[in-house]
Amino acid sequence: MSKNSKKFYPNYLTYPAIVLFLVFFGIPIIAGFVMSFTDWNINRLYEPKWIGFKNFQYLFRDEYFLLALKNTVQFAVITTLFIIVIGLILALILNSMVFWKSTFRTIFYLPAVLSLIVIGIVFTSILKMDQGVFNQFLTFIGLGNLAKDWLGNPDTAFDSVIVMQIWKWSGFAMAIFLAGLQGIPKEYMEAAKIDGANAWQRLKNITFPLLAPAFTVVVTMNVIGGFKVFEQVYVLTGGGPGNSTQVLGTYIYKEFSKGLLGRSTAMGLILFVLISVIGVLVNKGLKKREVNL
After folding, report:
1. What is the mean pLDDT of the segment spanning 177-199?
2. Based on the number of CB atoms within 10 Å of its own CB, is 287 exposed (0-12), middle (13-18) or buried (19 or more)?
3. 259's torsion region: left (phi>0), alpha (psi -120 to 50) or beta?
4. What is the mean pLDDT of the chain?
């Protein structure tokens, strides 16, 4: 084997991954971009007609698309905030524990490795009106008047999906924060105690700044995951009742199922741009904050 062959040999190992990426991701993204500007549908499957920006003009006049967009943004913001707060609190508690730390860490992290489909089925059995575990519990403690169809009521269905998302991913955030906490040198805390800093001052001036990289990971991943929400809504409510829990993922699926392929790819392109822009801005802003700290 020649010297040049040895030099470039590792590059060959990337070729299969590059080919797979282009075939299953690159080409479909380009094709979807092109088709979003056509009237591609089930009746014109092989002869799509170029219509320019008409799909996008229609979507931003479509009240259901705007509702799905609003629900998606609301879902991403609310779940991210609660996941950060709950994950951080759990991490702080576990980091200060001496006994049973590994056991509780496993228990809290377990939902993150479970399938969303399985979790959706479990939550459906818990929250359904008839024989639902939660309603039976309310009845048992004398609060039966509060029992309702949590997934069939427009006022509570979306909140139920949000609760499921928070329950699933709070343990994952906890694990990242806990790793960050365990990486903080104990000498910093001991020096702060000697200088007379109380618990809040140590948390504010030492813990939070040194956890900045963990915050970057948790916020970025949950914001992107929140905008990509699909399975949670599809399994629990299917976008209903009515369209009260409709998000971009389920609305794209709904329009695609109708055979409106060009319109659904236009929505997919909007979602792709939205996730890319917001993900980059959030990550860049938090990385800049890390440097400043």
Report:
1. 85
2. middle
3. left
4. 87
